[in-house]
Each structure stands twice: as structure tokens, then as C-alpha cells.
Amino acid sequence: MLAIALAARALDGMTDSAAADIARAEGLVDQALAASPRNAYAHLVKGQVLQAQNRWEEAVPETEAALALDRNMVAALHYLGWCKLFTGSIEEVIPLEEQAIRLSPRDPDIGSWYDLIGTVHLLQSRTDEAIVWLEKGRSVQPDVPSRHSRLAAAYALRGETERAATELAEARWLDVGGLFSSIAQVKAGRWRGVPKTRALFEATYFAGLRKAGMPEE
């Protein structure tokens, strides 16, 4: 539980000690797996730690192992969705999130699932649909800076510059690690993946952030 909390806050830009948090999370989850190698949740957490390290290909089998051990683990469906996105299988993402919503329609983490659906729509240039889902995600969990950054990009791409600037300012205010201070900082974080995925982010998310007023450096 501690390992996933550490990895998640690094992924969401909610720490100023991301490298140390991820290293600590890796040590903790490796201990858990050594003690209980068939524990579904431990495999889920290992996959999350690998995501935080931008090791998306390696995260896929760990997350799939969690689902093989517990097919109703909705968090694993969501994390597998992120893995599919960053390994280039974007068409597989929304069905995974929709399955999670069907299994747990009142889940406390449902805002994350809405957010990922919105992100996929954004990357595929379906800006209106993206805003609907991203707003739903923000309304459920308004304290996550990355939610506001994606909304900023979407609003900017739709020409709503004032709303985009407001969302970008909120992302920066919530961001204790400086992740959303510049395009370069964001790119140094989670947004790597395969060339196909990077190209989609460049054409939509980063283009929107530039329009919203985020500097390059």
C-alpha cells in the first residue's frame, strides 16, 4: 500500500522527491513479492512502480498477472489501460476503462478512469468528447494537477483561452514538484512511451499546453 502511494504521487506530479519515492516504492514492492509471489495486489503495485520508471513494456505482464490472479481487480484494468496507451495500443484503452466502470460504477477512483478516457479522446483529436470526460474526472478528484493540465490543453485547442489559462494555473498551484512549470519538465516526466504515442501527445496535449501559455523551458 505504501509503495503504490509513493509511485502514484510521483506519477501525478504531487511530490518534490519523485526519484527517491520511486526507489523506495521499488524496494517495498519487491519485498512484498518475495514474501507473497502470487499476491495479485503486489503484482499490480509492481506494474505501477514500473510505470513510474517509464518501463511500460515491463509493466504490462505484471499488470496482466494481477488480472490473471483476480479478474475483477478494477485498478489493474485501469493501469493496464495506461500501459496500452504508452506501448502504442491506444485503441485498447477505452474498452478497459469502460469495463472497470461497469464492474465498479461507484468506485472512489473512478475519476482516474474518466480522465484516461478523456485523454484518449484528446490524443485522437476528439476535443469536445475529451472535455466532457476530463471535466468529469476533475469534478470527482479536483486535487490532481495532471487533470487540470489536460483540461488546459483541451480548452486551448478549442479556442477557450481564458478557461485554459485558469486550468493551467490550477495545475501549477497544485503541483508541488514543479512538473507543470514548462513543456520540458512535463516531457522529462511520464510522457515518453513509443514513438507513436509521443507523436500523439506532441500534436495534441503539448500543442494545447503551448496555446494555454506553458513555456518551453
Briefly summarize what is shown.
73% of the residues lie in helices and 0% in strands.
Description:
The protein is mainly alpha-helical and 217 residues long. It folds into 2 domains: 1-76, Serine Threonine Protein Phosphatase 5, Tetratricopeptide repeat; 108-217, Alpha Horseshoe (Serine Threonine Protein Phosphatase 5, Tetratricopeptide repeat), CATH 1.25.40.10. 73% of the residues lie in helices and 0% in strands. It contains 12 helices and no strands. The chain has helices at residues 2-11, 18-35, 40-52, 56-69, 74-86, 93-103, 110-123, 127-140, 145-157, 161-174, 183-188, 195-212. Helix 4 (56-69) runs antiparallel to helix 5 (74-86) and helix 9 packs antiparallel against helix 10. The longest helix is centred in the first third of the chain and has 18 residues, at 18-35. It is globular.
Strand proportion, as a percent range, falls in under 5%
Distance, first to last CA: 35 Å
Question: Which geometry do the CA atoms define?
Answer: globular
The residue-averaged pLDDT reads 94
Give the CATH H-level superfamily of the largest domain: Tetratricopeptide repeat domain
Name the features:
217 residues, mainly alpha, Serine Threonine Protein Phosphatase 5, Tetratricopeptide repeat, single chain
